[in-house]
Design goal:
28% of the residues lie in helices and 33% in strands. By secondary structure, the chain is α+β, with helices and mostly antiparallel strands. Strands 8, 9, 10, 11, 12 and 13 form a 6-stranded antiparallel β-sheet that branches. Helix 1 runs parallel beside helix 6. It catalyses: 5-amino-1-(5-phospho-D-ribosyl)imidazole-4-carboxylate + L-aspartate + ATP = (2S)-2-[5-amino-1-(5-phospho-beta-D-ribosyl)imidazole-4-carboxamido]succinate + ADP + phosphate + 2 H(+). InterPro entries: SAICAR_synt/ADE2_N, SAICAR_synt_PurC, SAICAR_synth, SAICAR_synthetase, SAICAR_synthetase_CS. One of its GO terms (cellular component) is cytosol. Belongs to the SAICAR synthetase family.
């Protein structure tokens, strides 16, 4: 597919004008960032892995009736997606205490939570994507109460699906975040899962060893990120079991 007009460029993906109205082309970059882009690398092959993994998860969600923006994978790095209005919130689902939650509450990482917990953060890198209560979200007009109810329901369905898929291949779904978009069809609006689902947006631990298989490998200097993501792809059957890691990190000066 010929490259089209650039619509938006983020830390890990670039969006281009799609071939038809209401579509976009989503390109997965090899850039890895952490701590609001204060730490940066280029991990060769990361974009290829995330493209394939996100395709796998989005397709699986659609098969169980969860609507997503995904239409088809175009090539190794690009997907055709529906154009949606992104709600300026990250929807976080936690099954175990980890990361900022563990630090905030003084909990040991890996502590099971009594039930899946859903949090919202305001999408603003300059502010560090702060957690926000529902009262803020409604008062500032980011989403209505009905939207919030629908977002929580979507997030919990995604959690059920991802937890089962990961458990079947020996991986613990610690937590994850998704973005939700508004899709307008005439006068009708519906909410759908957008952005991506990949090890960039999930915490994934080996069930037996608690080895990290997600972006914490990069955040905490725990090893090679390409190796971790390749292991996830291998277990899920997204890559042949005899495939070698797609690349080694290249530092940005």
């Amino acid at each position: 597919m010929a490259r089209r007009k650039k619509i938006y460029e983020g830390k890990a993906k670039t969006l281009y004008e799609g071939p038809e109205p209401g579509t976009l082309v989503q390109y997965f970059k090899d850039d890895a960032t952490a701590f609001n882009a204060e730490k940066r690398d280029v991990i060769e092959g990361k974009g290829v892995l995330n493209n394939r993994l996100s395709e796998y998860f989005m397709t699986g969600l659609q098969q169980i009736g969860v609507p997503t923006h995904f239409l088809k994978r175009i090539n190794m790095r690009e997907q055709l997606i529906r154009a949606v209005e992104i709600i300026p919130l990250e929807v976080i689902v936690r099954n175990y205490a980890a990361g900022s939650m563990a630090k905030r509450l003084g909990m040991e990482e890996g502590t099971p939570l009594p039930r899946p917990m859903v949090e919202f953060s305001y999408k603003n890198d300059d502010l560090g994507d702060p957690l926000v209560p529902e009262e803020y979200i409604i008062s500032f007009g980011w989403a209505s109460q009905q939207d919030l109810d629908d977002m929580v329901a979507l997030a919990l369905r995604v959690n059920d699906f991802l937890s089962g898929v990961m458990y079947a291949v020996g991986i613990k779904l610690v937590d994850f975040k998704i973005e939700i978009g508004r899709l307008y069809e005439g006068d009708f609006q519906r909410l759908i899962v957008a952005d991506e689902i990949s090890p960039d947006s999930c915490r994934l631990w080996d069930l037996e060893t608690n080895e990290r298989l997600d972006k914490d490998v990069f955040r905490r200097d725990l090893g090679n990120l390409a190796d971790a993501y390749t292991e996830v792809a291998r277990r899920l059957g997204v890559m042949p079991t005899n495939s070698a890691p797609l690349g080694k990190p290249t530092l940005i000066n």
